[in-house]
Amino acid sequence: MRLLVVLAVLMAGTPPAAASGGLWCQLEDKQVRISIESGVTRGMGGPVFNFRGKLEILTKAVAEAMRVVEFGEDNLPQYWLDNRALKLHLYHEWQDDKPFRSVDLVIETQAADDEGTYGGSYAVNVFDDATPGDDKETKLSGEISCGAE
């Protein structure tokens, strides 16, 4: 009996285990295809793990070499996930001998329900300095939905 009392006291003082879940965004419209998947932990600031994303730009206004961008954890400088909002800022900069080229993808969503569904917008900003003196910037935006658990 004493053992049961000791176990009950120990269990009552044990914090719940930190769980992990995931987040995702999927979209295909006339301008882009976006696919994002990641694990996310609860607690300790909610760090992501196994983050991967892909952006396919469908418009011909962007140079072909910049139309497909794959993102990893190093390309996620900022993100926010709580019960009310999911926000992601993804950034890729080409590191080669060509002039400066980069792609920014910002997703800002709000909780649509209590089931982990988020709705909001995306904004893509493509900067291409391929032709000296002719900096080209292309901006695309639209609606997106994401999920988290």
Order of helices and strands: HEEEEEEEEE
Mean pLDDT: 86
Compute the number of structural domains: 1
Poorly predicted runs are: 3-17
Rounded radius of gyration (Å): 21 Å
Give an overview of the whole structure.
This protein has 149 residues and is mainly beta. It has one domain. It is built from 1 helix and 9 strands. It has one helix at 2-12, and strands at residues 20-28, 32-41, 48-57, 68-71, 78-81, 85-93, 101-111, 117-131, 134-148. Strands 4-3-2-1-9-8-7-6-5 form a 9-stranded antiparallel beta sheet, with no helix packed on it. The longest helix is centred in the N-terminal third of the chain and has 11 residues, at 2-12. The two termini are 40 Å apart.
Keywords:
149 residues; single chain; mainly beta; nine-stranded antiparallel sheet; 1 helix
In short:
By secondary structure, the chain is mainly beta. It is built from one helix and nine strands; from the N terminus they run αβββββββββ.
Blueprint (SSEs and pairs):
Layout: H1 2-12, E1 20-28, E2 32-41, E3 48-57, E4 68-71, E5 78-81, E6 85-93, E7 101-111, E8 117-131, E9 134-148
Antiparallel strand pairs: 1-2, 1-9, 2-3, 3-4, 5-6, 6-7, 7-8, 8-9
